[in-house]
């Protein structure tokens, strides 16, 4: 690495505390000088093919000029304005454009800062929706393994994800029902779905009137290991909630903006929730911003002559104009670059390469949805702390591939600009790892 890279690592080690990192044992962080498309560039001409979209945020590609320009132009005009009592063009145009694309009659957008705050907003919104109608409903239901972020409310509804043992005493009570995760050629999927729905039925018999909402990641639980379920399960769950008059929150922080092959996973699931949480791909990964969008019916419940019915929530940077400009530019690219067609090509490539490895002795539970392919590596220990995770991560980095296994789960989640040649390179690396490393 050159002198500048070394200097940055020195400063980093002296002053920075990294996320989800055991700072004592972690190797030095890799300084990145620039990025373009799917490629990150270091200070030593080393390149890394980013096939995890930098924690699942990058959609159209790093430093995409259309988005970079939109942010630069916006910065010269209006960089920030208080969003209580004021509005601005990028927010108005982004929400108008997004509303046309969101499922069903979800068309009312509340801005916040990241995935976790989008989830916090959804929980508070659901709770107050009932309160404003004279009902005290404070129970929430999550699905086993669901992950919704790292703030306290989001941790509470993600309490079974396995990441939050140190904070158990801070979390509020949340009821958990099973998640019928499945994979290709899974003979037990119907039984798992049946059991999960039977659990839900028992819960509803006892607590329907106290439950504000069920929150879930539609079709795909990301952080707990790219665990997938079938649309029919979400549809049956939704039918029960409709009958019991309970809100359904879709956390599409990861699945939103094309990851599952449709703009939103809701479409693929065939279910319109009451509230939807969006972040990550909202700005194509350029800036932190999120939206919690809801139906007009929910919004109406907050309209009253008294302030006590208003939604008393907000952040300093709510609807930051730069983020909104990025979001609008990103949405336009889905049309002008025919992004969903690119995602279909990525899915076809994943299909071809998954088929090549699915009978490998180290591979099990292959799964695929849209731009995301995943499988389990057979290892002594499974789960997030599996010993194979760090070994594989290191092996891939040495080959110029940014692939971050979730324990023994290997997955690819590339930016949509990734070429077939680049994807083949990533899959070749995976095949070699299966043969040489694990
Ligand atoms: C489904 C889901 N919800 C919420 C979050 C939290 O988002 P953030 O890290 O932006 O707070 C994540 C992050 O990975 C996520 O995958």
Characterise this structure.
The protein is α/β, with parallel strands linked by helices and 438 residues long. The chain folds into 2 domains: 31-60 and 338-436, Alpha-Beta Complex (Aspartate Aminotransferase, domain 1); 65-335, Aspartate Aminotransferase, domain 2 (3-Layer(aba) Sandwich). Helix content is 39%, strand content 16%. It has 14 helices and 16 strands. The strands form 4 sheets. It has a 7-stranded mixed sheet, sandwiched between helices. Strands 1-2-3-15 form a 4-stranded mixed sheet. The protein has a 3-stranded antiparallel sheet with strand order 13-14-16, with helices on one face. Helix 9 (265-269) links the parallel strand 10 and strand 11. The longest helix has 19 residues, at 189-207. The structure holds pyridoxal-5'-phosphate (PLP). Pyridoxal-5'-phosphate binds at residues 114-116, 119, 147-149, 217, 222-223, 251, 253-254, 279. The site of pyridoxal-5'-phosphate has 14 residues, from helix 5.
């Amino acid at each position: 690495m050159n002198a500048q890279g070394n200097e940055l690592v020195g400063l980093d080690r002296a002053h920075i505390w990294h996320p989800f990192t055991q700072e004592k044992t972690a190797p030095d962080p890799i300084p990145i000088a620039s990025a373009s498309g799917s490629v990150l560039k270091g200070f030593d001409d080393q390149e890394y093919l980013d096939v995890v979209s930098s924690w699942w945020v990058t959609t159209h590609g790093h430093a995409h000029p259309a988005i970079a320009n939109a942010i630069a132009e916006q910065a010269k005009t209006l960089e920030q304005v208080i969003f209580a009592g004021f509005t601005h063009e990028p927010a108005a145009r982004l929400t108008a454009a997004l509303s046309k694309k969101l499922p069903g009659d979800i068309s009312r957008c509340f801005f916040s800062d990241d995935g976790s705050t989008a989830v916090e907003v959804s929980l508070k919104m659901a709770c107050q929706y009932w309160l404003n109608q004279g009902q005290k409903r404070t129970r929430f239901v999550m699905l086993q393994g669901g992950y919704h972020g790292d703030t306290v409310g989001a941790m509470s509804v993600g309490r079974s994800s396995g990441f939050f043992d140190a904070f158990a005493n801070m979390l509020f009570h949340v009821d958990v029902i099973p998640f019928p995760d499945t994979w290709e050629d899974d003979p037990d999927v119907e039984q798992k779905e049946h059991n999960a729905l039977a659990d839900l039925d028992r819960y509803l018999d006892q607590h329907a009137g106290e439950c504000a909402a069920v929150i879930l990641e539609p079709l795909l639980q990301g952080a707990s290991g790219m665990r997938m379920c079938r649309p029919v399960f979400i549809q049956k769950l939704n039918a029960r909630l409709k009958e019991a008059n309970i809100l359904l929150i879709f956390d599409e922080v990861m699945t939103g903006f094309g990851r599952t092959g449709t703009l939103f996973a809701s479409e693929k699931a065939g279910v319109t929730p009451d509230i939807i949480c969006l972040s990550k791909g909202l700005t194509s990964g350029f800036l932190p911003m999120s939206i919690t969008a809801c139906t007009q019916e929910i919004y109406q419940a907050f309209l009253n002559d008294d302030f006590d019915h208003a939604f008393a929530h907000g952040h300093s940077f709510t609807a930051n104009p730069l983020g909104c400009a990025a979001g609008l530019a990103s949405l336009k690219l889905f049309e002008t670059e025919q992004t969903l067609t690119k995602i279909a090509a990525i899915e076809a490539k994943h299909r071809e390469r998954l088929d090549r490895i699915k009978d490998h002795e180290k591979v099990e539970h292959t799964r695929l949805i849209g731009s995301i392919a995943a499988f389990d590596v057979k290892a002594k220990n499974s789960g997030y702390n599996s010993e194979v995770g760090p070994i594989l991560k290191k092996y891939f980095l040495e080959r110029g591939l940014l692939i971050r296994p979730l324990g023994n789960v290997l997955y690819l989640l590339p930016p949509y600009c990734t070429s077939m040649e680049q994807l083949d390179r990533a899959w070749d690396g995976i095949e070699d790892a299966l043969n040489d490393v694990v």
